[in-house]
Amino acid sequence: MNRRLTLSGLAAALAIACAAQAAPDPITLGVNAGVTTRDTIKAQSEKFAPLVQGASRALRVPIVIEPVRSPEVPKAVREKRIDLLIIHTNAALAAVTKEGYTLLALSRDLKDDRVHFMAAKNGPATVAGCKGKTIWTAGARSYATEVGRAVLRANGVGSGEFDLKVTKYQDAIPFMLENGFGDVGMTRVESIARAWERQGGRILHSTERLPVYALVAKPGSDAALMKRVGDWMVSMSQTPEGEAALAPGGFKGFREVAAGESEALARWFGL
Predict the structure, then answer these.
(1) Can you point out the beta strands (E) in the chain?
(2) Percent helix, strand, coil in the chain (nearest 5)?
(3) How many CB atoms lie within 10 A of CB 144?
(4) What is the CATH number of domain 116-206?
């Protein structure tokens, strides 16, 4: 009997050991979307909990969420410590072109996926007319600023040909224009642009709708697993349940990257 118990215990131990070996390692998902200094890390993690829980169940891989604030994104990209990142598209494309990341999907956004150029009363009539002008933006390296730089560059206005003024707050930009502190303001907040128009202000230019965020995988990742993650994220936007899981983070969904799209966007961003 003792021998049978010993063999039984050995078999159980071997089964546990094999199960432990077969269990996949957790992957980390760093998320920048909607991550602000006003929320606690706990609150930010809870915002993305439905998305992470759904992905873990569907892919049978444990996923750990890690909120990443905007100033921390460049460091996170360089360190290559986080397996997957959902970050602004310009930062994602920089990670692809300069650090060897893989672009898995682009976001389909709920709002604020265009950048608007608001003109002061005596501001320029065209984007090309922004040469020599004072332009206000929120954040020196924010998504809206980088898109704005790309628009200016495409219209023949180089980085040294305008005076860029930076504020922390998007809603401070109209105040600067109204009070003669600048000629143009750039914002991706739709409500601010529409309010500017309602009070008689002029929108100099609005971009086409752009993917604000992108999903990238760090170099050396399991390519098959990363493709599964990307495909699953794209499939999320095709069901009401998936959209409900994405919505707390500010997403309508994700989409596949069209052939040549990432290269064209990278060139446009000057990468």
Answers:
(1) 27-31, 63-67, 84-88, 102-109, 116-119, 134-138, 163-167, 184-187, 202-206, 213-217, 251-255
(2) 45, 20, 35
(3) 23
(4) 3.40.190.10
Q: Do domains 23-110+211-268 and 116-206 have the same CATH topology?
A: yes
Structure tokens at 131: 């040469």
The C-alpha atoms of residue 3 and residue 1 are separated, in whole angstroms, by 5
Please state the pTM of the whole predicted model: 0.83
Q: For residue 254, give the nearest of 269, 239, 270, 264 by alpha carbon.
A: 239
Which architecture characterizes domain 23-110+211-268 according to CATH? 3-Layer(aba) Sandwich (3.40)
The domain limits of the chain are 23-110+211-268, 116-206
- Name beta bridge partners: 66: 30
Q: Using one digit for the tens of pLDDT, what is the confidence trace for 158-193?
A: 989 999 999 988 889 999 999 999 999 999 999 999
Whether the CA torsion 262, 228, 237, 68 is positive or negative: it is negative
**Which residues on neighbouring strands pair with residue 185, listed in sequence order?**
118, 136
Closest alpha carbon to 121 in 185, 35, 66, 214: 185
Strand-strand pairing, 116-119 and 184-187:
antiparallel
Instruction: Categorize the per-residue pLDDT at 22 as very low, low, confident or very high, splitting at 50, 70 and 90.
Output: low
Query: Whose CA is closest to 33, among 253, 256, 249, 255?
Result: 249
